[in-house]
Amino acid sequence: MRLYNTLTKRFEELKLGKTVKMYVCGITAYDYSHIGHARTFVFFDVLRRYLEYKGHNVIYVQNFTDVDDKIVRRAVEEGKTQGEISRIFISEFLRDMSKLNVRRPNYMPKVTDHIRDIINYVERLIELGYAYEVEDEHGCDVYFHVPSFEGYGKLSGMSLDELNRHRIEPNPKKRDVKDFALWKSAKDEDFKANAVFDSPWGYGRPGWHIECSVLSSKYLGVPFEIHGGGRDLIFPHHENERAQSFAIFGVEPVKYWIHCDFVTIGGEKMSKSLGNIVRIRDFPDGEVLRYFLLTAFYRSPLDYSESSIERARRSYNYLRNTLLNLDMEISALRTFGIDRDGVGFDALRHLRDFELAMDSMNTPNALSIFHSLARDVNRNLYVMSLSELEECFRIFTTFSSILGLFEGYERIPTLPKDILELVKEREVARMEKDFERADRIREKLKERGIILIDTPKGTRWMTKHF
Ligand SMILES: [Zn+2]
Q1: Is CB count within 10 Å lower at the N or C end of the chain?
Q2: Distance from residue 402's CA to the centre of ligand 1 (Å)
Q3: pLDDT band at residue 212, thresholds of 50, 70 and 90?
Q4: Residue-wise DSSP of 306-342
Q5: Residues with CB under 5 A from ligand 1 (ion)
């Protein structure tokens, strides 16, 4: 596979062993997730599925930031604790993800379950001379001293000048304007929200960046292969994470840093602070949304609009109907016990093209190859042999399982004899123009979960649940 590595600033051929360890930054659980978040998690879900398809054993970790300024703020506003707020939005997030067919990562650690690990890590950074303590009202803050780490700025590609300008929280106690918090001593709101943890520096809570260094190395070891997230995380979050992990382990902690671009709306980034978000939970059809999120290359922005969603819905429906047509035809040939000569259909050609597109995670190209398979299927539906149809079905479902579409699909069975008799009886009734009887039989079959469809090639059927 060939993906863009943010660290080296170029497309690289991935050198992967059998096991691929992947870490993707999860949500901060203080509000509902929007489709900008959905894009990142769908993208890495497809990457995981494709790696598995290629025979890799993927170990996937995604954290939950369940203690943080925003969570504390909301908890205080609502008179709740940090734990209550984060529990609500973690469970909403999991519901959103299953609606989008995003498979659960192998581990989804929460920060508050790993406070001890974080403290150990911060202590170690102090011992090694990368971090220092600063006294505060209720205890100490601990800062990472950026100039102590050579190579800071390599991931984001920012110059020292840009980095110096970027820091917005001037704190006279910091040794350098770029230094960032590893541990924050507790403030009054933290006590109110019950978001305080005992530490060698008094009551406080971890900074944001340290959690990902701790959780990734704890669950995956160092170095690991893939670290992902949205493009907005490159700086400062991932830059800081790299610095912390490198400082502790003395090696480049991640081989491939992969980032997804934004979802935009009218060309502007979709974000809560701009107030232009569409929440996942408000979107009626999860699979259509998933399809839409795959229509742009991951390195390009994806613009959300009514018309782009409508286009995605139409394309999605075309594939869905093709799947049904294909399966109905197979079930009909099997049930009637007939076959055809076939047309020498080469479905494998589509599979090869699809793999080529997926090797660079070019999902829009993969979707267009999916469509060209679908068009060929519809064109040849009534002339392909049973084995050709089956081969198409196999490749069709290979594509859909890699992309995570049509997950609820269950195959249309070959009809048992007694049902076939009813289908034939109804055809006779129709020929005799006894429509009342034909309708009665149709209803009877419906009760048994068989929905009849009249096509130019005769009666076909599908099962209720799709
Ligand atoms: Zn992170």
Answers
A1: C
A2: 26
A3: very high
A4: HHHHHHHHHHHHHHHHHHHHHHHHHHHHHHHT-----
A5: 25, 212
- Residue 138: pLDDT band with limits 50, 70, 90: confident
**For residues 190 and 141, what is the distance between their CA atoms, to the nearest angstrom?**
14
Instruction: Calculate how far, in angstroms, residue 85's C-alpha sits from the geometric centre of ligand 1.
Output: 20
Per-residue pLDDT tens digits for 420-452: 999 999 999 999 999 999 999 999 999 999 999
Q: How far is the CA of 155 from the centre of ligand 1 (A)?
A: 14
Query: Cα separation of 182 and 142, whole Å?
Result: 5
Per-residue pLDDT tens for 140-159? 999 999 999 999 999 999 98
Q: How far is the CA of 233 from the centre of ligand 1 (A)?
A: 8
Assigned token pair, 220: 């995956």
Ligand 1 center–CA 237 separation, angstroms: 6
- Asked if residue 82 has pLDDT above 90, the reply is yes
Among 427, 397, 421, residue whose Cα is nearest residue 53: 397
CA of 64 to the centre of ligand 1 (A): 9
pLDDT band at residue 222 using 50, 70 and 90 as cut-offs: very high
Q: How far is the CA of 25 from the centre of ligand 1 (A)?
A: 4
Q: How far is the CA of 454 from the centre of ligand 1 (A)?
A: 54
Q: How confident is the model at residue 267 (pLDDT cuts 50, 70, 90)?
A: confident
- pLDDT tier at 273 (50, 70, 90 boundaries)? confident
Spatial contact of 178 and 209, defined as CB atoms under 8 Å apart: no
Extended strands (E) in 75-195: 131-136, 139-144, 180-185
pLDDT surpassing 60 at residue 199: yes
Q: How far is the CA of 451 from the centre of ligand 1 (A)?
A: 49
**What's the gap in Å between 241 CA and the centre of ligand 1?**
7
Q: Report the Cα–Cα distance between both ends of the chain, in Å, rounded.
A: 34
pLDDT tier at 167, thresholds 50, 70, 90? low
Helix-helix angle 386-403:348-358, to 10 degrees:
10
- How many Å lie between the centroid of ligand 1 and the Cα of residue 174? 23
Q: How far is the CA of 356 from the centre of ligand 1 (A)?
A: 31
339 CA to centre of ligand 1 in angstroms = 56
In terms of pLDDT, which residue wins out, 463 or 301? 301
Tokens of 168: 């917005």
Q: Are strands 131-136 and 139-144 parallel, antiparallel or unpaired?
A: antiparallel
Distance 24 CA to ligand 1 centre (A): 7
Ligand 1 centre from 255 Cα, in Å? 16
